[in-house]
Amino acid sequence: MYAGHRSRGWRFPATGALFGLIVGAACWAPLAPTALAPTTPDETGGAGLLAAIAPVAPAAPVAPVAPVVSDITAPLLAGVAQTPTPTPVAVPTPFVVPTLTAAGQAVLASIRSDRTAQWVKNHTETPLRSGPNAAAVVFTRLPQWSLLKQIDSRPDWLLVQYGGDGDTRQPGPGWVKASDVGGVDPPTVWISSSRRGALWSTADATASRVLDVPPATLMEVFGPHEIQGTRVHVRLPGDGRSVPPSQGWVDGDAIGRTRTPAVGDLPRAYPEDLRADVRISVPYRTQLDGSEYEAANCGPTTLGMALESFGLNLPPPDLRSQVLDAENFLNTDPDAGSFIWALARVAEGYGVRAHGLYEGDGGLHRWTTDEIRTSVQQGQPVVVQVVYRGLPGRQDSAYYGDHYVVITGLLGDSFLYNDPIGGAVAHEAPGYDRVMTRAQLQRAMRASDTSYAYTAFSLARN
Fold it and tell me: What pTM value is reported for the model?
């Protein structure tokens, strides 16, 4: 399926030289023959990794840059005194808050109306009628627990606005019996950017620009005083790439109302990820891209995410080809998975150092969650081999093989990570900004291929 052992339909090379079971690579985990896997410190390069093996050269040299880290609290080199570097204080550039257009005023009025209105839900199926009496025409029958905005009232009756069900029931006003409904808290208001704009630090003219907001960016109206002047206080779930989870103020002329997202549309760590202790900017990629090898491509996809955090935006087909070349596998085999040492080899070919894969004697290092935490605190994304069923929400999967994820941040005692399987195509929440506890990570690292259990490597410029 996505990782672990090869499916029964996989094809052996015609020569039979590699005929037999090969175990160990995730996204089918074949057993690495000694001829393919490094076995000595010279062959693996030890801490330097692959010193004696020709690196995989990219099509064009690209200079890596440091990944963006939201907060790093640990020193970069343990035990080495660091000289503090004075951080220049940015002076916000005053920005004149614009006067709202009629369209902007309408959006803000709509938000204010929904946040201050009385809302009800019907505790039983109830008719929506054309008037406040039992003889009035029935527009439709509202399913139990329909959310209704109260507009007016008459004795024993409420005039409500129904939002429709997106199918046969159309939105519109109508009357319901007051005895059929009960009051509820106002719903969350969701908006999206109608054009390219900005997220501001405050609502007034002293605001500094926090980040650029592309069109169609999803935002949640947030806070007890969410509208001040011409701006709205929002928090952003982020898009996994250019827009991180964040909060601030947006201009009323740059937004529009949008539907409430389903729970599965939002990152699993949201909104807790807004208070992450560390979050490395690791642009998300999915392995479910429609390619013929998508089911076996978790390794190159995860590596691609990690490398892009260093400014290396590499095409997925190129990465897959280079990983398979490192393993001496056929590039034309859509079922071929990835060994973790092959991922590290390709990373080093692009000038990014892979740390922690090997012990000094050339054997694989067994990582602890504390070591992963330390690496992330140092701004280093960590590529981890895991059991697919060991990940949160995957315990009932029919797939028992191995998989790769990249650890991207810290949230209290838990870990943020990107999973190359996720999103609507996988019938799941987005694959970025997921969260698992220390115990869940430790259990997931107990890989189904025990020879690769607890294996990982971190990436850094040096």
Answer: 0.78
Q: What is the DSSP letter of 271?
A: T
The string of pLDDT tens digits covering residues 230-276 is: 999 999 999 999 999 999 999 999 999 999 998 889 999 999 999 99
Rounded to whole angstroms, how far apart are CA atoms 73 and 65? Answer: 20
CB-CB contact of 246 with 199 (8 Å): yes
190-193/218-221 β-pairing = antiparallel
Q: Which tokens hold the place of 330?
A: 């056929």
CA–CA distance from 58 to each of 114, 206, 339, 412 (Å)? 54, 46, 20, 38
What is the residue whose two structure tokens read 């902007």?
A: 104
- Degrees to nearest 5, angle at CA 115 with 109 and 116: 90
Return the axis-axis angle of helices 298-308 and 340-349, rounded to nearest 10°: 30
Distance CA 239, CA 236 (A): 9
| Residue written as token pair 């005895």 | 179
CATH of 118-184, one of 2.30.30.40, 3.40.50.11540, 2.30.30.90, 3.40.50.150: 2.30.30.40
189-266: what CATH class? mainly beta
Question: What are the pLDDT digits (tens) for 41-97?
Answer: 333 333 332 233 333 344 444 445 445 444 433 333 333 333 344 444 444 444 445
